[in-house]
Design a protein that fits this description.
It is built from nine helices and seven strands; from the N terminus they run βαβαβαβαβααβαααβ. By secondary structure, it is α/β, with parallel strands linked by helices. Helix 1 links the parallel strand 1 and strand 2. The chain is globular.
């Protein structure tokens, strides 16, 4: 087991990539704190983790400092330490500069950037004690950009540079900080995005942007997050790991 008895806090852990990461980490021996905001399938969580004392799911709006503080307090009470933080929670958005409202741009930046900052800052005192590992979920289009998604690509570009700067700050403390930059993952978020563009041709065009000509499955990205969170990547920090089906190759 690669994560035996390590405490892993995962945001956005009730659905999609976050849930798949929590499930994989649990199989690898980790104790899980899953943070969620809205969507939560209690039966799915129960069927996956049973009544294990090694798992805590807690609701919080990660853009609210008081609610993030409550998560920190819950982690302290339950486990008393944090070895791994996966900043996965995010919202999507479509629209160019003319179509995107000020409110929408702020909403995306609040969740995808400010929320990541808040969670990391609140848990940092515990992480310093454990020489912990932080994995942030960026995106291939946070590296290369994409037309018609100005808010989302800007937020994910910020995740990339947050990761690099934090890695430099944390290196003297023995804390490693990396990011994963996935391509299109077949999750609820992508499903919602595709519903806004219902033609089959649009879906095919998105897949064709990737050299492998398909969406990834969540488990394929979760395995890469596991690599960055485990001792297998012990010499990696400040790394932006592209697992994007060849998107950033420039097909």
């Amino acid at each position: 087991m690669k994560l035996k008895d390590r405490v892993a806090v995962i945001t956005g852990a009730a659905t999609g990539l976050g849930f798949e990461t929590a499930r994989l980490f649990f199989r690898e021996g980790a104790r899980i704190v899953g943070v969620y905001h809205q969507k939560y399938d209690e039966k799915k969580i129960r069927d996956t983790f049973g009544s294990s004392e090694k798992v805590l799911y807690a609701k919080a709006d990660i853009t609210d400092p008081d609610e993030v503080k409550s998560i920190r307090c819950a982690v302290e009470r339950k486990f008393g330490r944090v070895h791994i933080l996966v900043n996965n929670a995010a919202v999507s958005s479509s629209g160019n500069i003319e179509e995107t409202t000020e409110e929408e741009f702020k909403r995306v930046m609040d969740v995808n950037v400010f929320g990541m900052f808040l969670v990391t800052k609140q848990l940092f005192p515990m992480m310093k004690k454990e020489r912990s590992v932080i994995v942030n979920v960026a995106s291939n289009i946070g590296i290369m950009g994409m037309a018609g998604r100005i808010a989302y690509t800007t937020s994910k570009g910020a995740v990339v540079n947050f990761t690099k700067s934090l890695a430099l700050d944390c290196a003297p403390l023995g804390i490693r900080v990396n990011a994963i930059a996935p391509g299109a993952i077949y999750t609820e978020m992508v499903d919602d995005f595709l519903r806004q563009h219902p033609s089959e041709e649009f879906k095919k065009n998105i897949m064709a942007m990737h050299a492998l000509n398909r969406f990834s499955e969540p488990i394929e990205i979760a395995r890469a997050i596991l690599f960055l969170a485990s001792d297998d990547s012990s010499y990696a920090t400040g790394t932006i790991l592209s697992v994007d089906g060849g998107y950033t190759c420039g097909k």
